[in-house]
Amino acid sequence: MKIGDSAFRTIWCDGDSRVVNVIDQTVLPHRFAIKTLHSATDAALAIRDMTVRGAPLIGAAGAYGLALAMNQDPSDAHLQSAFDQLLVARPTAVNLRWALERMRGHLGPIAPDRRRNAAYAEAAAIADEDVAVCSALGQHGAELIAAAWRRTGRSQPVNVLTHCNAGWLATVDWGTALAPVYKAHRAGVPVHVWVDETRPRNQGASLTAYELGSEGVPHTVVVDNVGGHLMQHGMVDLCIVGTDRTTRTGDVCNKVGTYLKALAAHDNGVPFYVALPASTIDWRMRDGVKEIPIEEREATEVTHMSGETAEGDIATIRVTPKNSPALNYGFDVTPARLVTGLITERGVCAASEAGLLSLFPGEERAA
Ligand SMILES: CSC[C@H]1O[C@H](OP(=O)(O)O)[C@H](O)[C@@H]1O
């Protein structure tokens, strides 16, 4: 997507030097900085510290992390050790395992002395596919927004509520939950987005607002807990969120707080959609609440906040008493019964095994 007059992806390879560049998302929106990755360790740290974040982007970063590993040492042992190091960088987004397993499966049969070029090519293919897939799901989702606009008699903008950041910064480009918003906006459908700030890392306030502002999409940043009030007062036409892992039965794991938005939407008859590429479906799992690993991050993400001072400096402050413990679960699971539909690159389906298999036949074997 565009930043100013320049088009960007979130991750790209400098072909000559074989290093990997990423937008440093820890300093947005106050700074725009590029971080260069030279090794699998750099990639693992970038995933772990959320320099790069968002399920599809985490997958692409893992893939390029293995390419960087093959650039250093293409041996079987290093392929496996880099795979293991990258896999544990963050536990919830299934895209990381999906991308690493795809890369290892592709590289394993190749002679070590021919792995480097093959690794960069496969990582680039994963990135390019993500762009195409998110563009396609954006088109399917845009039709839902256009239908909502028609239901208003084309008399007012469509109000979409989203949680966290599932925009182009969470993918290689376009995004998942925001891809339909961008496609609708560019097609002339008036849309306004309620942006959940999304404590504690504030991906909504810092990243979603930044993206929407750069694209000229009207939006309003709101505190996480106002969503239910907005829905009670008819101020939300539909919710669209992303996901880090969706089970074959349609249970959705997403940034913590998503489940509470889904409950409020269900209680107020507001359609609740989840946008996801196939790489986010975990066909091995059936019960999201029981099976999906929920990342627990450092308590300091809750007890402290970072931002820009009046002087333009980036500062971090404590927002809790020094001796108050804090608990920081990063995700929660929304049961399929609360999900109106899943927006995928192949179309929109019910949040159910039958719905997913109607779009992705042949996955029965993973039952
Ligand atoms: C398109 S996946 C976006 C997904 O990832 C975010 O989590 P995090 O920022 O911690 O990587 C959040 O769950 C988003 O919905």
From TrEMBL:
Pfam families: IF-2B
Binding sites annotated in the UniProt record for substrate: R53, G54, A55, R90, Q203, N254, K255
Site, as annotated: Transition state stabilizer: C164
Family note: Belongs to the EIF-2B alpha/beta/delta subunits family. MtnA subfamily.
InterPro entries in the record: IF-2B-related, IF-M1Pi, IF_2B-like_C, Initiation_fac_2B_a/b/d, M1Pi_N, NagB/RpiA_transferase-like
UniProt-annotated catalytic positions: D244 (proton donor)
GO biological process: L-methionine salvage from methylthioadenosine
Protein task: Catalyzes the interconversion of methylthioribose-1-phosphate (MTR-1-P) into methylthioribulose-1-phosphate (MTRu-1-P). Also catalyzes the interconversion of 5-deoxyribose 1-phosphate and 5-deoxyribulose 1-phosphate. Part of a bifunctional DHAP-shunt salvage pathway for SAM by-products.
Name by which UniProt lists this protein: Methylthioribose-1-phosphate isomerase
Pathway: Amino-acid biosynthesis; L-methionine biosynthesis via salvage pathway; L-methionine from S-methyl-5-thio-alpha-D-ribose 1-phosphate: step 1/6
Source taxonomy: Bacteria, Pseudomonadati, Pseudomonadota, Alphaproteobacteria, Hyphomicrobiales
EC number assigned by the record: 5.3.1.23
NCBIfam families: eIF-2B_rel, PRK05720.1, salvage_mtnA
Single GO term (MF): S-methyl-5-thioribose-1-phosphate isomerase activity
Top EC group: isomerase
